[in-house]
Amino acid sequence: MTVDVLIVGGGPVGLTARALLERWGVRVLLVEKRVELSPFPRSRLVNVRSMEIFRQLGLAEAVAARAFRPEYGRIRFRDTLFEHDFASAAMIGVHAPVPESPVIGVVTSQDRLEPTLLAAADTADAAVRFGVEVVGLDEEEGAESVVARLVDRRSGEETRVRARYVLAADGANSTVRELLGIPTAGPGALGHVTTVVFVADLTGWSAGQPAGVYATAHGSFLPLYPEGGWAWVVPTPDDPERADWLGLVSRALGPDGHGVRAEVLRVQHWTVTAYVAERFRHGRILLAGDAAHALPPAGGLGMNVGIADVHNLCWKLAGVVRGWAGAGLLESYEAERHPVAQLNLRQAVANAQLMFQAQERRREQLRAGAGASVPDQVELPWSERYFAQLGLVLGVSYHSGAVLADDSSTPLRASHQAPSQASLQAPSRASRQAVPHAPAEAPPHTPPQLSDPDPDPDYTPTAEPGHRMPHLWLTPGRSTLDAFGEWFTLLTPAPEEWERRAGSSPVPLRIEALTGEYGDLCGLGPHGALLVRPDGHIGARWTDRPDGDSAVRDALAGISRSTRLPTRSA
Question: pLDDT of 39-52, one tens digit each?
Answer without folding.
Answer: 888 888 999 999 99
